[in-house]
Amino acid sequence: MQSIAESHGPVLRAQYLARSEKLSAELPAYGASDDHVHLAVRMALTRSIAEVVRAFKSESAVVLAVASGTLTFRWQSGYAAFGIDPNNTTRLFDSIERQREHHRTQASLAARKHIERDDESSA
User: Fold this and answer.
1) 3-state DSSP helix/strand/coil percent for the chain, to nearest 5?
2) pTM of structure
């Protein structure tokens, strides 16, 4: 599995911000975990979601390949896109910005539950 090192976050964020400007879009929130990113993007109605995602994924794959020294980083083929209520963005943007922390917490909770199940079944 290819992963996104925490140290790659600043260069990846900078690339997404630069690409946003080229697309006449805004990037109010960015967050990465080990294997995916979350982006909040305000984009012009003249661009398709697929076009914007393709631009972000293609350029960031190059950035991550160079940063990791593998020269072979590839994103998975799919993506998800959701509309956002413009009157309720604060909590969502905060959640996006804390992706790595969120996934660490969720992994820790899952591991703890697994251990608790093992303890119960061995009792």
Assistant:
1) 55, 10, 35
2) 0.72
